[in-house]
Known about the structure:
The chain is an all-alpha fold. The protein has one domain (3-315). The chain has 15 helices and no strands. Helix 1 runs antiparallel to helix 7 (131-155), helix 1 (3-33) packs antiparallel against helix 9 (198-210) and helix 2 runs antiparallel to helix 8 (160-188).
Amino acid sequence: xxxxxxxxxxxxxxxxxxxxxxxxxxxxxxxxxxxxxxxxxxxxxxxxxxxxxxxxxxxxxxxxxxxxxxxxxxxxxxxxxxxxxxxxxxxxxxxxxxxxxxxxxxxxxxxxxxxxxxxxxxxxxxxxxxxxxxxxxxxxxxxxxxxxxxxxxxxxxxxxxxxxxxxxxxxxxxxxxxxxxxxxxxxxxxxxxxxxxxxxxxxxxxxxxxxxxxxxxxxxxxxxxxxxxxxxxxxxxxxxxxxxxxxxxxxxxxxxxxxxxxxxxxxxxxxxxxxxxxxxxxxxxxxxxxxxxxxxxxxxxxxxxxxxxxxxxxxx
Length: 316
């Protein structure tokens, strides 16, 4: 396979996954912003949404301090802003451009999902959305991602095209899960709020909803929502598809499949297996003792290194 084709497939999946994550961030921010004031909420959930998306500097240049961020500004910036390269609209545009470049490497079902989503995206009004319109928009984005993921899984041959596509999706998904956890733990909970208080419960429950894991949490732990159990589910539990361990289980397997097909191992395979081993050999008590923020920061840095290794090894 040409490196250009592999690159397009890899980034096509990454941008679809990124759009899905942004929709989930906006969805949970909307839920938290409308938490009843009787629970003591005093943080700016919309500012934390920008931090989670990793575009705080660009937003601050355009709109000012995150502490003063307003719902309309954040929704416009993360969903539709042309000058934000990671906005949902730009994610779908870049995904469609990549899909057109490798049209013959995609199945008809995959192309139809991307092309239809791009056409439907232009039907949403170019103005501030009402609450109902925003809910419909976010549901549309999440449904598009689910349809693309399903089409990829059910219709692609298990060859290098499939493996590069899945590597892109899993790498992006692990980054997004880590950022959601990190921002919640260090930004959303006000300093005066006690861990385990009512506001803390609603915030962690909303985080679980944002990654479609609230039901899974109760199935696994059969307990009330606690920060260390949520972290355990989203970091170490391989049964949870969005957990860091599950993402790296898939990443290591897909990179090994690529290496087997091409007859050569490389730095990306070794780094992926090393990160999977570290996740396998950790427990949540150790992670909290050394610091959740420090663990996640290290993970995000290593995840970015893996992306750079994949690019250097295969995509240039």
